[in-house]
Structure formats: structure tokens, C-alpha cells
Design goal:
- The protein has 397 residues and is an alpha/beta fold.
- The chain is 43% helix and 12% strand.
- It has a 7-stranded mixed sheet with strand order 2-8-7-6-5-3-4, sandwiched between helices.
- This is Aminotransferase.
- Keywords: Aminotransferase, Pyridoxal phosphate, Transferase.
Length: 397
């Protein structure tokens, strides 16, 4: 069997995630520390777990409606209005998905025709480009700059737009950089988009994890609501990664078509997880505040520590990542990460895993204990000291 001929050429051309290989090595190491996994280290709060358990005890194990439990969609609508002043009709504008990633996939497949271009600011989460390609579209990777704190500027966006542009992915707060877009930034982007038919896919999975500011959705900006598909979920805000709970909100005409994709591909999101999510939406605000406060302390500690050992790092205002500049070491991002892992048993992720513009940077995740962060900084300081000594000896020879 010639499997290369049998399989879809489009799928074969998509490269696997550049993140996973570090974890494959890490699994074989003892006493290793990971600042790599983009996952909360908190356990899902007990009252949310209890709601899932209770749903099992009550025998609620059947399919729900394709769009998700009406009760859950009502709570999502209430939550979005309460927290972000976003108003969506639970019956026609919200679909519950298997994580935010499914929501991104559905949005892209719902919008993209073969040959359409999708603008994707990078560095950013690894799935946008491959999912665009698998939908038949063309990813247009738009490099944001460290001097702009990795925000998308209107000047960059204007240059990327062509007659083939169908959509803009807006991945803020950002993974891997921790960058945010404030209201003034979004207003400038909105001004570029007015008068076009370009849709926005706004991935707001980290919307609850902003520090010293309140998240604003581009759907809040005048004239943007009708052209924006909002993707969100429970993984980061409520420490519910394994429950696989997300949701998509948008214009009802688009949601109607998007629901067909979800219906035929998935049927419905997991029932137990949906009942747990109802509790998260209804009574989880305090959990969000508690976890965010803890992340904030780790964020400030890690940024200060990286700067102290000689790695420049802008202060990220969102998500739970920092994105230090390692160009002064003379190593590429991949070399830095591989050597740091092998020599000091600490996993961080190469900036190149997140697209062009990531070279010269690494992603460090602070969704881990303060003890591990402190030890990782000690080991990084040791790594940099030894590296500089070796480089000095080589220069002397």
C-alpha cells in the first residue's frame, strides 16, 4: 500500500506541533522541571467537580442537544454579559464545543473557501495555521514585534490585507507572549476593518487572565459585533482542561451554519462536563479571582528573576506565559531549549514553535508552583553562567 498516495495531501503537508518533542524527552527524565505545559496546575475547584459527579449519580449520561444544554448556554450568556458586557442570545448565538480548539476549527471551516486567506498574528498558538490549511485556506502569518510588546498594530494589518483576505485571527491575550490588546489597540484594528467584509475570529480563552487591567473583546467595539466570532472556554479560567469544554458565540446566521459542522462531526459536547460547566459559570467567579491572584504573583516573580539573570523580558499583561529574549546567549531558540533541558533538566519551549517572529525567544509558563519556578530560575542562572564561561574560553582561544 502506498499510503502517501492514499492519504490527503493537505493533511500530509501539515507539520506536527513543535511543542511535543520537548515533553517526550522530559517524560524520561528524573527531577526535571517543566515550564512548558500551557495548563493550570490547579485542580478543578471541588464544587465544579462535585456537580459533574452529581450528574453521573443522577444518571445524566445521554446526549444533550447539539448546541449544548440550554441551561449551560443560558449561564454562558449571563456570564459573558456579567464579566465582559457581551450580549448573546443563548438559543441562537452560542454553541458549546469540545474545548476552545474545536471552536476555532469550526469557525475556520465555516468561513473559509479554497484559496481564501486568513491573517494570523504570530507568535501565537500553534493550531491556527494548520487548521486554516486543513480548511482549504491560506495562512498569512503576520509577525508582531517585540518593540510593540507583540501587539497587532494597524500598520501591520493594513499591509497584510489583500482581496483574498477572508478572516483575521485575533489571539489575545496571547499564547506564547502574554501580550494583550487594550481597548485603544482594538479600536485601531477596527478602523482598518471597517468597510471590508473581513471576519474576526477572536480567541479569548485567556480573557480572565489579565493583570492590572480588564479584558476587552473586539466584539465590544462599535461595528465589530456583527463581524466577530468569539471563542472561549473553561480550560484556563476554571482549570478544566481535561473536561474539554469550550464555546463559540457570534452572529446567528453564522452560528446556524457552524452548528451543522458540530452536529455531524461531534454530535454534542460531553454531558458530564456540561453539567460541571453550569456550576462553573454560575458559582465560579471567586475561583477565577483566586487563581488569577496566584498567577499574578508568579508572573511578577518570574519576570523579575529573568531580568536579574540577564534575560530581557517585557512585562506580559495576560495569560500565564513570559517570553524572554535569549539572543544575547548566541544560541538559537531551539539550541537554548535543548541544551537547557539536557544540562539542567528544565523544559521551556522554543519561540520558533509558535511561528515566525519567535526566533530568539523562549516561552516559560508560570502555571506551576512557586517552588518550581524558583528552582528553574536557579538552574537557568547556572546554565547561563556556565555558557558564558565556555564562550569566554572559546573567544580566548
Amino acid at each position: 500500500m502506498n499510503y502517501q498516495q492514499i492519504m490527503s495531501q493537505r493533511i500530509q503537508e501539515v507539520q506536527p506541533s513543535g511543542i511535543r518533542r520537548f515533553f517526550d524527552i522530559l517524560e524520561e527524565m528524573k527531577d526535571a522541571i517543566s515550564l512548558g505545559v500551557g495548563e493550570p496546575d490547579f485542580v478543578t475547584p471541588w464544587h465544579i467537580r462535585d456537580a459533574g459527579i452529581y450528574s453521573l449519580e443522577k444518571g445524566r449520561t445521554r446526549y444533550t442537544s447539539n448546541a449544548g444544554l440550554a441551561e449551560l448556554r443560558r449561564e454562558i450568556a449571563s456570564y459573558l454579559e456579567r464579566r465582559f458586557d457581551l450580549k448573546y442570545d443563548f438559543a441562537s448565538q452560542i454553541v458549546v464545543t469540545v474545548g476552545g480548539s474545536e471552536g476555532i476549527d469550526l469557525a475556520l471551516r465555516c468561513l473559509v473557501n479554497p484559496g481564501d486567506e486568513v491573517i494570523i498574528p504570530v507568535p501565537s498558538f500553534v493550531c491556527y495555521g494548520p487548521l486554516t490549511s486543513m480548511a482549504g485556506g491560506t495562512p498569512v502569518l503576520l509577525e508582531t514585534r517585540a518593540e510593540d510588546e507583540f501587539r497587532l498594530t494597524p500598520e501591520l494589518l493594513k499591509k497584510a490585507i489583500t482581496p483574498k483576505t477572508k478572516a483575521l485571527v485575533l489571539p489575545f491575550p496571547n499564547n506564547p507572549t502574554g501580550a494583550v490588546m487594550e481597548r485603544s489597540d482594538l479600536e485601531a484594528i477596527a478602523e482598518v476593518l471597517r468597510g471590508t467584509d473581513i471576519m474576526v475570529i477572536s480567541d479569548e480563552i485567556y480573557s480572565e487572565l489579565t493583570y492590572g487591567m480588564h479584558h476587552t473583546s473586539i466584539a465590544n467595539i462599535p461595528d465589530m459585533y456583527e463581524r466577530t466570532i468569539v471563542i472561549n472556554g473553561f480550560s484556563k479560567s476554571h482549570a478544566m482542561t481535561g473536561w474539554r469544554m469550550g464555546y463559540v458565540c457570534g452572529p446567528k446566521e453564522i452560528i446556524k451554519q457552524l452548528l451543522k459542522l458540530h452536529q455531524f462531526g461531534i454530535m454534542s459536547a460531553p454531558t458530564v462536563s456540561q453539567y460541571a460547566a453550569v456550576e462553573a459559570m454560575r458559582n465560579g467567579d471567586r475561583d477565577i479571582e483566586r487563581m488569577r491572584d496566584e498567577y499574578d504573583g508568579r508572573r511578577r516573580y518570574l519576570v523579575e528573576g529573568l531580568r536579574r539573570i540577564g534575560l530581557p523580558c517585557f512585562e506580559p499583561k495576560g495569560a500565564f506565559y513570559v517570553f524572554p529574549d535569549i539572543r544575547s546567549t548566541g544560541l538559537s531558540s531551539d539550541e537554548f531549549c535543548e541544551r537547557f533541558l539536557m544540562e539542567e533538566k528544565v523544559a521551556v519551549i522554543s519561540g520558533t514553535a509558535f511561528g515566525p517572529g519567535g526566533e530568539g525567544f523562549i516561552r516559560c509558563c508560570y502555571a506551576t508552583s512557586m517552588k518550581d519556578i524558583a528552582e528553574a530560575l536557579t538552574r537557568m542562572d547556572n546554565f547561563l553562567t556556565n555558557l558564558r564561561k565556555k564562550q569566554a574560553r572559546s573567544a580566548g582561544n
